[in-house]
Amino acid sequence: MPDLCRIHLEIEGIVQGVGFRPFLHRLASRYDLAGWCRNTVFGVELELEGAPDALTQFCTALTREPPPLARVSKVRMTDGAAPTGEPGFHILQSRRAGSPDTLISPDIATCPDCLRELRTPGDRRYRYPFINCTNCGPRFTIIRELPYDRALTSMRRFQMCPVCQAEYENIETRRYHAQPDCCPNCGPQLKLLTPEGEEHSDPIAAAQQILQDGGIVGVKGLGGYHLACRADLPRTVAELRRRKRRDERPFALMCRDLSVVRQYCLVSPDEEARLGSPRAPIVLLRKRPEAPELLSETRELGVMLPYTPIHHLLMEPYDLLVMTSMNVSDQPVRCDVEQFPWRRLADAVLTHDREIVNRCDDTLLRVFRGRDYFFRRSRGYAPEPIHLNADCTGILACGAEQKGSFALSRGQSAFLSQHIGDLKDWETVRFYEEQIERFEQRFGVAVRRLACDLHPDYLSAEYARRRSREGGLPLVQVQHHHAHMAACMGDNGLDGDCIGLIWDGTGYGTDGTIWGAECLVGGYAGFQRTGSIRPIKLPGGDKCAREIGRIAHSLLWDAGLGEQSRHPLANQLTQMLTSDLNSPGSSGMGRLFDGVYALVTGRQTVTYEGQGAVLLEAMASEEKLPPYDLTFYEEDERRTLDTRPLIAAIMADRAEGMEPASIAVRFMESLVSLAVAHAAFAREKTGLCRVVLSGGVFQNRYLLSRVSDVLTEAGFVPYYHTQVSPNDQGIALGQTLIAAGGGGIPCV
After folding, report:
1. Which CATH number fits domain 499-721: 3.50.30.20, 2.30.110.20, 3.30.70.1230, 3.30.420.40?
2. What DSSP string runs through 94-116?
């Protein structure tokens, strides 16, 4: 048959769980091509037979018109066998041989077509809480192994009924080869757990009644359980705070639709697009005065839209509900309740019998200048890889302690874990180790090298040291702020050397002291520390993270103004500082924020780490005020900000009656000046103009915006994060690139 050709294609990327094989079938039919396709452990494999022009058109459309949620990263084409003249195109059973080498789709919000069916009386899936199709529904959270077939997911126990099976096999339906496809006759079922153990014929209605009466309901979502309550009942919100031990940290809000969001928040078109996207993150929005006060003490609210059918049904009588993860603060989101004392947190739990294989908390982001700016990268994004400029195959980067995460790399792809939690207790560490094992298995990566934080007491570093000893694997220790810098470089695809302004609360320095307001120069292979701030003594050590009045007293003492301290333990703290008793020095920018907030407000304690910095930003007025004059001194070829004159100037303003909101503006403008001064000093030494901004302090919108603009005006090229968080969740990406680039400190 001389007019026919046959080709063989192997396609890699996010091509499983996104309707890719049905797309290939329809595309083959469009161009009158015969052949077959199937899932494999590396992606999708197919053979095509037809006219040469039709094959060319198919290959062009393959990369130009993939399904909305697909991502084609590589296509390998070879000549196939001799043409056979076979008719039609077929989807074959998946081939499971070999090591996994494909990508896994993140979980996807309910699509508009499924929502229409959910709300259409007479439809066989009317009000069915697990409706889904090839365009939406659970993915990563239900996958046990690859390839992505129903038998390898938590849907395995639910055998399709004849009607669903017919849909699954019909190319004309959007459920053609949809692995989680189900209906009320064959799929998961909802139930409401109550302390009395009552059965309810309509669990949704019963849960709505509990909410209406001011109760708190646990709700099983895609990647874990939420706690929901009415946002308009202050007593209920306060009770939720008590049970969750979350005294003041903001709660996320779920709004029924965008019209409700607009009632409570200012929303840009870009922010609306993120809220309504298939990824469905929590988006930080500027709140209006009408927003409930108990939800957030800042100027922003974290808002999301319903993203599962259960959410859509539960929200019907309500404009907005508090929707926060069902856990004690800083621990992993719950994925089961059977072995968990849920009655301490909820009055009832809306649950079901589809297992969550991979728990995955909600993503939290801000839209900054039209791009994603992550605070927490998780559901809807994980485990989608970050593309790297280097081959990092076999590197496991173990991250830090707060905002625990890890990265496992294959080729030029770094698979970042979902949000894990703070690695400070046994349960969180167990989840962390369990996810590492699953990532290794699912992505077919054999770990060859390890990277961890330099801090000797981090549990993530202890895990890395243990694996290194037991497996004989080389281990590189990476300084915390160097990892932040490398993470922002990798996030932006930068090679070579850069200036790094790395501002956060704490990180273990190469000299054994605590760093945190650093200007670094270098790249993946190494760095120099060219700028910092005068170390602040922390009387009581770690106590200062919550008892911020101790930091205020230390700043006053250091500036020679100790008599102005109002701390109830002033004499005792002074003795500790004078004798250097349990008073380690810290150049942490977060600690400076905490101390200044305590000075201008008189507040002595906070309820979560970093709250002082958050509230100082929130209290700042919008007036334009000049910065304070800055004083520097140089030591060890490093320019250091002398905080003593700055503190004296702040106290002088306070004595003259300046409003705290105005002092907050002047202080943050001073930090903008500090950023430019440090960058200019580094440029004088190196000639570099590229500046990366990283560290948790750059979650401050005011600083991120002003520092970026003023650096640009001064002739620098600033870069900030867009794919991973500037906080410690992004550390693992930087560790990966440093390990690949020959940097870090080998652990012997």
Report:
1. 3.30.420.40
2. P---S---S--PPPBPPPHHHHH
